[in-house]
Amino acid sequence: MRWLLFIALVYQAHSADVCEPRKFQGAYGVQLSGTTTISGERKPVALVGRLVFDGTGTVSGYVSVNYTGLLLGNPVNGTYEAHEDCSLTWSLQDDSGAFQHFAGTMASDLVHIQFHQTDDGGARQGVMVRTPKVCSAATFLKRYTYTISGSTTPMLPGETAHAVSSNGVMEVSEGGNFTITADGPHAPSKGTLNVDSDCITNIALALSVGDAGATVAMKLRGVLLDEGKEILAIQTDPGTTVTAKFNAQ
Description:
This protein is mainly β. 6% of the residues lie in helices and 57% in strands. It contains one helix and 16 strands. The protein has one helix at 2-15; strands at residues 26-36, 43-53, 58-67, 70-82, 87-94, 99-106, 112-117, 125-130, 143-152, 163-172, 177-182, 189-195, 200-208, 215-225, 230-235, 240-248. The relative contact order is 0.17.
């Protein structure tokens, strides 16, 4: 019985994730979405950005936020704490002086982190993924599945809110071009993408919305991640609160 108890305890210890906080450092792409009541009324929000953790408790970076259809961009800086139980907390201050606070759980390889905003009324759906040290067009892989989801906010008289949802495949070719094909009876459409050395990605596409060839133009801003295996992005067009995720096949 004692041996069985000992084996169970050893198994439990090894099955729990253990992280090395000293190794948590470098650049990460971040995406956060959901709804927020921080300013009072419940509103949709979508955020994407790049944060650099310096290995000594300081974090800095830049984030783009689409809030109620308005795109805002802010440099941020703050502090963080990483722990052996793979928990991670950090706070960020933008150029207005406002602070926001976050908490999450790191995978033991420190590549992926699931997190949420801990301020009352903050958004709950967050993911952070390590970026390559340097990105170029060669970092993109050839084929990705994608999910685009969110909603629009009326910005002009006569406009109405509606949901945005699409899944499908993106095939990347040379010269920053790609073909995107939505699931279902949709015709393929073309688009372009580029990336800078910091792994910030800009994507322009015409998303097919029917089998008659109708398309909707979209512009996305995101981050190329995990040696090109993932892209996290948000739509930057006015009146949109939309996130996009691309995963290499």
